[in-house]
User: What shape does this take?
Amino acid sequence: MKRRALLATLGTAPLTGLMAAQAAAPAPHPDSAEPPGTTIFAPFESAPYPDPSRSHGYDYEGVHYGAAAHYSDSTVALYVPPGFRAGAATDFVVHFHGWRNDVAHVLARYRLREQLLASGLNAVLVVPQGPKDAPDSGFGKLELDDDGFSRFMHDVARFLVGRGILRTPAIGRIALTAHSGGYGGAGGVLTRGGMNALVSDVLLFDAAYGYYDAFAGWAASAQQNHLLSLFTRDTSTGNAALMGMLQAPHPNIFVFLAHRMTLAALQTRAPTFALTTQVAHDELLQQRDWYALFLRTTALSRTPAS
Assistant: This one.
């Protein structure tokens, strides 16, 4: 199937080395109990896999990753925080995970549920299973199918209505978040997913490995669209490329060192980039709760208490 295809001096680590390091990541954050709220793991026909793009598996550096073990899991993790108020439409945070991961591990290691709760957003977290425990950035139907993301999100909304969690399947704003190899899912969604008008925020965590045209084009297409990219040296070249593509005749982007970030500074709707040399690639989301901080910058609705 065809693929529906300043900072540069810091240097860039090889992609293969980066992902190998991810494979040797430490164990998930030790939680004494499940976070409050409702967590659901459910299969969806519109989830990334199975998909013809990986019907014969995938080969990487001489290793074959078979379809049965790595590209047949249609699980989607859903998290509804306590205090969530169902309304006329529902806001969603959709997260695309990196290499060598499964959704249960992603929730635990990166503390996504705890951080959504801490952000105060009145939104539902959605984490589709991409390549399962494989070194691959492909996201199957969500990346490659025209309107595939639209079908998926409407399936999710109807499912939640059926569970009595939502009153209506109407979809409000969507924040896309991507870590590392998750860029394939986020970039594909912006290229052909059919829901760009509802995507208000794109938050990248060391994920500028490709789809530059998609990210830059979406960010430039509407003044209210918010692109926020946190990066290490691993993606410095990709982020420099994005900065160059987004520069208007006059400077219109913001660039920070991550340790100097503030919520107020990040809340501008202009494209914003933050470099860290102190936090490792696989610790970006959770070590300093930057995932929660970045969620607070989005246009998504807040719970009444926050």
